[in-house]
Amino acid sequence: MTMASPAIALLNGDRRRRAHRYKIVIAILILMLAAAFALTLSLGQSFTPPRDVIRVLLGEDVPGASFTVGQLRLPRAVLSVLAGLSFGLGGAAFQIMLRNPLASPDIIGISWGASAAAVFAIVVLSLSGPAVSIFAVVAGLGVALMIYALSFRNGVAGTRLILVGIGVSAMLESFIAYTLSRAPAWSLQEAMRWLTGSVNGARLDQTLPLFLALVAFGGLLLSRARDLEALRLGDETAAALGVGVAATRIIIIVSAVGVIATATAVTGPIAFVAFLSGPIAARIVGNSGSLLVPSALVGATLVLIGDYCGQFLLPGRYPVGVVTGALGAPYLIFLLIRINRAGGSL
Amino acid sequence: MTADPIEASGGAAFAGRSNSLRILWLAAMIFACIVLCVLSVAFGTRDVGWNDIVAAVGGHIDSIGQAAVAVRIPRTLLALLAGAALGLAGAIMQGVTRNPLADPGILGVNMGASLAVVIGVVWFDMTSAYAYIWVAILGAGGAAVFVYTIGSLGRGGATPLKLALAGAATSIAFSSLVMALVLPRNDIAGSIQTWRIGGVGGATFESISHVLPFLAVGFAISLLSARKLNSLALGDDLAAGLGERVAFARATAALGAILLCGATTAICGPIGFLGLVVPHLCRLLIGVDHRWLLPFSALNGACLLIAADIAGRVIARPAEIEVGIVTAFIGAPFFIWIVRRQRVREL
Question: Which has more confidence, B21 or A84?
Fold first, then answer.
């Protein structure tokens, strides 16, 4: 007893310190996101004073600012935040569950599945609105199931799942290119949305399905955060800790695909946001707590800042997916080098 | 040998292939190639009568139909050359890396060539046709070295799956860089897909004549390395024991493949998966001897690409699908099938 109590006190102290650190990190990430949000609302082609921005947000009619802020910047910023939260959350969930940063939905083809379904629904079936989202979610789940089934052979090995996913992605990307070629009236801008992701032409009514999906699926995902952390230790350990492994997997896959696919149905598969958010969040958070919320916040900040850079800071105008794609590409290669160096134990 | 189960099992099953059977297959394949060439000239997005087709082949371009057919002739020639180059390059790469998943598309070599050309056009205002080809070959070589280096880091060296993963990831990364570079350039952005998914639609006799010398050298180097690849297939130690300079053999064979891929990508854009499928099919037909496998892969690649191009023109009438889209549709399931065949031990 005399030996144990100081040890327990030490352990508790450590735990308290980590929890404290986690709270601070979350607070900083929220502040950064808020700052980026405020920046994109007030500074575009022209500067709108913060006072006018707040008046517009409160519903007042401010000449000039009501249009630029209320009609142009606000829908775009809200859509960016919601899509970023969705991609960050869903991406991190997959990466944690499959214990591999390369197993993010945009690399293993789930985002491509949702995008292909959205293009098909819009071009061939002439659907719009929530119907497209439902189509995308169903297709995303179908692709997830297909990849899992195709890579199942005496268990699912990580590398095999990723390679199967890459093969499926190639087919889906071809399908998107084919469908777009059947719709010659489409502009380059529209095509870019489904190939790399864009928040151009955002409307506030588009954000509603995203918000609802984020509340429903995101809430479900966060309620399983503890079980997800246990899965990280391996299936046997998780089972020993009292986690229903199979049920947890299914719930996590359904809810992660739900958020990702709903976002993809509106913005297209914004390149590498799902892939980048988790590892960036892991760098910031360390091992002080669950990665889900920080990843979502990082994802939202990435999309906001990426879109801002694409619109105003770079020569020429890029959709957000091109900016995040150019950012994610070197990181993907860097990650691969690091994984191989560390022993190739993918 | 264990690194390549397909090669190993193929060797056991097909060691006894007789030469007469191979010659029979060769004749059949040449016949198929000629038939496909004729079909490729005859069929397209527009229906043209036989009289017009014959007239157009004779050099007349008096009617719209004849003009349409006249465009199909260089297109067919390019599909023939590009298919042969990519099929052969795929066989070389599978031999050099002893990797059943190797393919100029999957290993990122084609996308590297495409990225290099795009950098040349966007940053250095490159316009000359020969500059395109040289830069594409440089890009292909750079990408090949890069992917092989990453894939062989760490435990176990360049295992098939590590190499495939390195190549696929590099390809994804290059592809998004291509997009970022091309998009702000309005003059070339309209064809953004052609920098990421290749096709043979824009072929002219002039562009083919530019690329022909490079392809010829590439074909020669590649076909001459057949015996070296046979030695390499035995494993590095045994090959060295037989007096083969292993590193030199690898480098020359790879150089041939890089010339073929770079030159092809310079005028077609990156076409994937063809080089993956073709050597596997050929191994089933004629066995694993590279002296037969390499020419067969070239012939088979030409047939497959022409067939894919015809399909792309006929399926989506009145639009047409880039041949790179068709090859991805055929090749990706094949890729998944081979991934599944790999043993878990190697993952």
Answer: A84
